Amino acid sequence: MNNRVLMCGNDAMSEAAVRAGCRFYSGYPITPQNEVTAYMAMRMPQVAGTFIQAESEIAAINMVFGAAAVGARAMTSSSSPGISLKQEGISYLSACELPAVIANVVRGGPGLGSIGPSQADYFQATRGGGHGDYRTIALAPSTVQELVDFTFLSFDLADKYRNPVLILSDGILGQMMEPVVLPEPIDTELPPKEWALTGARNRRPNVIKSLFLDVALLEKLNFDLQEKYRRMEAEETRFDEVAINDAEVVVVAYGSVARICRAAVRKLREAGERVGLFRPITVWPFPGVALARAADTARLFISVEMSMGQMVEDVKLAVGGRKAVKFYGRAGGCVMSVEEVVREIRKAMEEIT
Amino acid sequence: MTDEGNNRPPREGRISPPKRVFGRPVSLKDAPTHFCAGCGHGIVHRIIAEVVDELGIRERVVGVSPVGCAVLGYDYWDFDVSEAAHGRTPAVATGMKRARPDLAVFTYQGDGDLAAIGVAELIHAANRGENITIIFVNNGVYGMTGGQMAPTTLEGQITKTTPTGRTLRDCGAPLKILEMIAQFPGTKYLARTALNNPKNVMTAKRSIKKAFKCQIDNIGFSLVEVLSPCPTYWRVSPLDSLKWIEERMIPYFPLGEVKMPG
Questions:
Q1: pLDDT of res. B3
Q2: Which residues have a Cβ under 8 Å from the Cβ of B217 and sit 6 or more positions away?
Q3: Interface contact B96-A66, CB threshold 8 A
């Protein structure tokens, strides 16, 4: 039976969230993610969930904080300027170890920027984003199907680690329509959340807090968080490789740019060039160990991004100075063509020979 | 001494055993206070604990504490409590109550948290008519950070950031939050009370109990403002701080129930 449906990325992501058991969504209008708020406004009442159009991005993320604190699967979404406003909330969610899913349909920046697609929020997504030492798992889908699959997965990851999880979409993925297979809605009871604020019945009161005036206690929280982040690195690092084994040149790209690079790699292979594609699926944890393995055989890496060079720093860290690392990027909502990427890869190859 | 003795009629010529007439509420922990001498927070903490006990909601109440002197509410209350980012308290409470309508959700906020940085969250939660209870402790000054001007600091009042006294020209008039949100159809029970004498403390307790009842009966948004002393940053003695409330605050912030259900 063919159960594929044609959906735009934002709608598909929303439906996947509902099917993953998300029963609380609050958001604020911003392009190019407006389909999410509209979809959730329509869908949440059908599943006895809550949709709130919040007065601000700040209120939206804090409503998610409240819903998560009482044990609900909760989500918010926005686009770059709005995600900046949510950083305070994401820092608090991380410090309080509350599970939540936050989708960023990235647009051109900085400032108000444009409504075109971008990957310029990579630093923000992979380095914490708000104040303090914390990390969030950041999943970077490159197809609408992956948007569905990763959104569905993100709620389990958030609960498993009691940590916010980011979906790093962009203006292309959010707006484009592709056929997708939707997962069956979860029908099992979710594991109990003993830490949640559900009323102190037959137990001691639960407290959710991030204030530790005793600096030694706060350092201990930081040590514990770091241990959790190391566990995430060990267990949740995801990536994809195309024609990597004999590749002399490894193109590194994620999200929608990886699709463009995949086509460029195919063209170069047809022309007899030994070029492969390495695609991080989790941009944090970054698959640096796997990328370092590729550095054993490849002689050139080129990071292709819709930014002015952000992921390339992680590529350089992974390669560790052993091989040449180049960068090509577009910014502000501009998207590179396949021909452009082919040209840039050839240029980089000439430069190092 | 147990209470069992009270069941026996006192015998002629003997003193009946003492009867327990006052004790610590179950919802209040046996913890030494961190608040300054003469501070009003401890009284409001206790009132809330008594009300929670009397309404029998200790096992389904969730408090949200602010950023400010009262952030440590969970050190005193013996029920579930969460912190919130500065001013986001009503948004956090909104998320809690919508996700779990069976819980009794209240926020405890100072004038900085509620009337300055969190005024957007307050106004919109009130206007949506969220079925939550807000306890607004107004002492007209930022305590935790060392006594700066609050939105409710009185005209002429000296603080760290108004060294020659608050002027209306530079700082605007003290905000009357209660009167501001009274116009919203979504607000159901609004009252302003004070801690300057035992009678007003009893009134404050009655109002806070009504506010919680308003939520439990699913009537809607309730807020009780409590004019509370801060002798430390008013630079007066605890006794004089009570006079300050009576002579300076109450004339500007009139007491009473501004809005009642039905």
A1: 46
A2: none
A3: yes
Residue B139 inside a domain? The answer is yes
Decide: A138 and A75 in contact? Cβ < 8 Å. no
Question: Is B94 an 8 Å CB contact of chain A?
Answer: yes
In a domain, residue B86? The reply is yes
> Looking at chain B, how many residues does it have?
262
Specify the pTM: 0.95
Residue B219 burial by CB count (10 A; 0-12/13-18/19+): exposed, middle or buried? middle
Q: Is residue B131 part of a domain?
A: yes
User: What domain range is B220 assigned to?
Assistant: 34-259
Question: In angstroms, rounded to a whole number, what is the distance separating the alpha carbons of residues B214 and B260?
Answer: 9
User: Residue B61 and residue A199: Cβ atoms within 8 Å?
Assistant: yes
- What is the side-by-side order of every strand in the sheet holding A137-139? A50-53, A24-27, A74-78, A100-106, A164-170, A137-139, A282-284
Does the beta carbon of A198 lie under 8 angstroms from any beta carbon of chain B? yes
CA–CA distance, B117 with B126 (Å, rounded to integer)? 16
**Tokens, residue A257:** 């740019």
Residue A64 sits at the chain B interface (C-beta within 8 Å): yes
Q: With an 8 Å Cβ cutoff, is B78 touching chain A? A: yes
Q: Which of A23, A62, A88 sits opposite B92 (nearest CB)?
A: A62
CATH topology for A240-352? Rossmann fold (3.40.50)
CATH topology of domain A4-236: Rossmann fold (3.40.50)
**Does the pLDDT of residue B1 top 50, yes or no?**
no
Closest CA to B69 of B199, B232, B222: B232
Question: Which residues of chain B neighbour A56 with C-beta distances below 8 Å?
Answer: 120
**Which CATH number does the domain housing residue B76 bear?**
3.40.50.970
Residues B81, A197: C-beta atoms closer than 8 Å: yes
Asked if the model's pLDDT at residue B138 lies above 80, the reply is: yes
Residues from chain B that touch A209, judged by Cβ atoms under 8 A, are 74, 82-83
B15, part of any domain: no
**pLDDT, tens digit (0-9, with 9 covering 90-100), for B182-235:** 999 999 999 999 999 999 999 999 999 999 999 999 999 999 999 999 999 999
Nearest-CB residue to B100 (from A70, A89, A208): A70
Kindly tell me if the per-residue pLDDT of B60 is higher than 60: yes
Please name the member of A59, A74, A205 whose beta carbon is closest to the beta carbon of B91. Answer: A59
Give how many domains chain B has, as a whole number: 1
- Which of A23, A63, A198 is closest, CB to CB, to B91? A63
User: B48: which chain A residues are within 8 Å (Cβ-Cβ)?
Assistant: none
* B34 close contact with A: CB closer than 8 A: no
- Which residues of A fall within a CB distance of 8 Å from B77? 205
User: A54-84: per-residue pLDDT in tens?
Assistant: 999 999 999 999 999 999 999 999 999 999 9
- Would you kindly state where each structural domain of chain A is located, as residue ranges? 4-236, 240-352
| Cβ density class B27-52: b for 16+ within 10 Å, e for less | bbbeeeeebbebbbbbbbbbbbbbbb
Sign of CA dihedral A54, A58, A60, A65: negative
